[in-house]
């Protein structure tokens, strides 16, 4: 029986623009899956809604929440703060639900190191190529090249974290990638991906 029938935490991380937010939204359409809506000090994008995509908040309020120990994890990413709300997550987990996170490697490390008494599966998403990633970022950021460049600048560093994850999946065709992830979750399959293929792909992305 899949461990995730009893609930647990599923984390998706990737270099910015690889598609994890899109994938998380698809995953949580399944019964018993819930997204962990993070707090952030980043400004909302035109299509983003407060409480649905993020809880948008000021730096001051974020600092108050840190002090009050309201975060399961938090980190500074691209000059903004992001954090996962502890109470909401624990409430869902206690009810045997699956909580899906779209967080970076720093937050993943913090959750892993907590050794909570819940299943944990960490998945790293890779883009098919650097040029496709660039295209996706331009589309998402409405051609705001300053933001696109900032995200692309962080690409190599973000990419270097792939080895810390249980599973690594390439997001070329969205449907195929989603299916692979759901299969991984269903089987709770850690480390059964082809390391040689992924290593080769990462090398190509870095060249
Ligand atoms: P991330 O959360 O990893 O930063 P997003 O999910 O915001 O990335 O995706 C970045 C952009 O790429 C979005 O405009 C999204 O619609 C698009 N996208 C995501 N996955 C694919 C895919 N497989 N093929 C084409 N476009 C994609
Ligand atoms: P974006 O601004 O594109 O929505 O997110 C930027 C980065 O912050 C992404 O790598 C995303 O996964 C990460 N992120 C979003 N929410 C959280 C969170 O609550 N904690 C951590 N550590 N990272 C987060």
Verbal overview:
This protein is of the alpha/beta class and 207 residues long. It has a single domain, classed as P-loop containing nucleotide triphosphate hydrolases (Rossmann fold, 3-Layer(aba) Sandwich). 42% of the residues lie in helices and 21% in strands. It is built from nine helices and nine strands. Helix 5 (130-140) runs antiparallel to helix 6 (145-153). The model has no long low-confidence stretch (mean pLDDT 95). The structure holds adenosine-5'-diphosphate and guanosine-5'-monophosphate (5GP).
- How big is the Rg? 17 Å
Q: Which structural category do the helix and sheet elements fall into?
A: alpha/beta
Highest CATH level, the class: Alpha Beta
User: What's the name of the CATH homologous superfamily?
Assistant: P-loop containing nucleotide triphosphate hydrolases
Q: What's the domain count?
A: 1
Please identify the oligomeric state. Answer: single chain
Helix content: 40-55%
CATH architectural name: 3-Layer(aba) Sandwich
Which word captures the global form? globular
Largest sheet: 5 strands, parallel
In spatial order, strands of the major sheet run 2-7-1-8-9
List the ligand species: adenosine-5'-diphosphate, guanosine-5'-monophosphate
**How many DSSP H or I helices?**
9
Task: Please give the number of β-strands.
Answer: 9
What average pLDDT do the residues reach?
Answer: 95
User: SSE order in H/E notation?
Assistant: EHEEEHEEHEHEHHHEHH
- The proportion of strand residues reads 15-25%
CATH topology: Rossmann fold
Terminal Cα span: 42 Å
Low-confidence stretches: none
């Amino acid at each position: 029986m899949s461990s995730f029938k009893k609930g647990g935490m599923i984390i998706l991380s990737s270099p910015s623009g690889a598609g994890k937010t899109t994938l998380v939204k698809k995953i949580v359409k399944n019964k018993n899956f819930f997204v962990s809506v993070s707090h952030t000090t980043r400004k909302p994008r035109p299509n983003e809604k407060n409480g649905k995509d993020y809880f948008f908040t000021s730096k001051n309020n974020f600092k108050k929440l840190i002090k009050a120990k309201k975060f399961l994890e938090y980190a500074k990413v691209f000059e903004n703060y992001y954090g996962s709300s502890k109470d909401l997550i624990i409430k869902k987990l206690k009810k045997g639900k699956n909580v899906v996170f779209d967080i970076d490697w720093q937050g993943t490390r913090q959750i892993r190191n907590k050794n909570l008494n819940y299943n944990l599966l960490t998945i790293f998403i890779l883009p098919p190529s650097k040029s496709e990633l660039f295209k996706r970022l331009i589309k998402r950021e409405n051609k705001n090249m300053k933001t696109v460049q900032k995200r692309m600048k962080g690409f190599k560093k973000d990419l270097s974290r792939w080895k810390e994850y249980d599973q690594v999946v390439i997001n070329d065709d969205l449907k195929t990638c989603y299916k692979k992830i759901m299969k991984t979750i269903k089987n709770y399959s850690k480390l059964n991906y082809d390391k040689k293929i992924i290593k080769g792909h990462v090398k190509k992305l870095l060249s």
